[in-house]
Design brief:
With 308 residues, this protein is an alpha+beta fold. The protein has two domains: 6-61 and 201-303, DD-peptidase/beta-lactamase superfamily (Beta-lactamase); 65-196, 3-Layer(aba) Sandwich (Beta-lactamase). The chain has helices at residues 6-17, 30-33, 67-88, 104-107, 116-125, 131-146, 155-163, 166-177, 185-196, 202-213, 228-241, 247-253, 290-303; strands at residues 41-46, 51-55, 61-62, 152-153, 198-200, 258-260, 265-270, 274-279. β6 (258-260) and β7 form a beta hairpin. α5 packs across α9 (185-196) and α8 crosses α9. The longest helix has 22 residues, at 67-88. Bound molecules: glutamic acid. Glutamic acid binds at residues 64-65, 98-99, 116, 161, 168, 196, 261-262, 287.
Length: 308
């Protein structure tokens, strides 16, 4: 299995560059529609402490759905596997778009924690006396998992997200009506909007993926940031549900667990080896970074790291 080198990282970025024109930034959130689609950055961090970067790996972008990974990790820590997966959210892929409401009517429990309905249910399970306290706890954990204590809200994205979030409101109120969400819906929604609007870089999400790859331990500090069993659950869900309704194709073409966000980020995790973070805001029809997928495909072939 060829090892990662700076040359491979730069070649992957050069290969991905042609794909920035093959999509466009998310249009349904006004803030995102303004982002420069030519940006492209890549960061790779290995479990034995090496770091490789190329391109716009320090340019901040909104984390969007990749935050669902952190929310899930915190809810698992707060409530445990049994509580979360027996009553709140399932473990199955849907094949539906990320914000779909259709199955909630018949199945009540959202299919998995990475569709919007599932992530909102997961936020509902995070401990805290108020939305503000939940968000404080989530942000603190987010910073530790990303290895950066400066991560914060992008206020403009948050406002934009909140103003256009009616579909998410519909999902949340539906969950409330069926008692899958028990707290204050407006506060849980606000936590959801805020967590999607956090500003991160490709380096930050590579670090998050690295902790997952390293079975929950931050290799830099040696600290166990999440239980090994929880890291395994999250990696499995990333593989089956992490790329929206493109997860199956991604597993075939790329072949390792990854989570994307409509901000253009993709965090991918290779157990015992490395975390990969990519940022390219032009999205394909399913809401995944077009250039980001191309970069991941290149890396997968160059290092022969497909699981299958
Ligand atoms: N904030 C976005 C939404 O709720 C996140 C979606 C995503 O990245 O998939 O629509």
């Amino acid at each position: 299995m060829p090892d990662i080198t700076q040359t491979i990282v730069e070649e992957a970025l050069a290969y991905g560059r042609a794909f920035t024109e093959k999509g466009k930034p998310a249009q349904y959130i006004p803030y995102l529609s303004q982002v420069n689609r030519d940006l492209l950055g890549l960061s790779i961090q290995t479990t034995d402490g090496r770091r490789f970067s190329a391109g716009d790996c320090r340019v901040p972008f909104t984390v969007q759905s990749i935050a669902k990974v952190v929310a899930l990790a915190l809810a698992l820590r707060d409530r445990g596997e049994r509580y979360l997966f027996s009553g709140r959210v399932g473990l199955e892929p849907t094949g539906d778009p990320f914000n779909s409401i259709i199955r909630l009517e018949t199945d009540k429990k959202p299919y998995n924690p990475f569709i919007n309905a599932g992530a909102i249910a997961v936020v509902g399970a995070i401990k805290g006396r108020s939305g503000a306290e939940k968000f404080r706890r989530l942000l603190a954990y987010f910073r530790r998992l990303c290895g950066s204590d400066t991560i914060d809200l992008c206020q403009e994205a948050y406002v934009s997200e909140r103003e256009t979030g009616d579909k998410n409101r519909a999902l949340a109120y539906h969950l409330k009506a069926t008692r899958m969400l028990e707290g204050d819906v407006t506060e849980d929604l606000d936590v959801y909007f805020r967590m999607c609007s956090l500003f991160v870089t490709a380096e930050d999400i590579a670090h998050l993926a690295l902790v997952l790859a390293n079975r929950g331990v931050d290799p830099a500090s040696g600290e166990q940031l999440m239980e090994e069993a929880h890291a395994r659950i999250i990696r499995a869900l990333m593989l089956t549900c992490g790329m929206y309704d493109g997860s199956g194709e991604f597993a075939v073409k790329v072949g390792y667990p990854a989570k994307s966000g409509v901000g253009g980020g993709i965090a991918a995790t290779l157990v015992d080896r490395m975390g990969i973070g990519v940022f390219g805001p032009a999205l394909d029809a399913r809401g995944n970074s077009a250039a980001g997928i191309a970069v991941m495909e290149y890396l997968s072939k160059a290092m022969d790291i497909r699981l299958f």
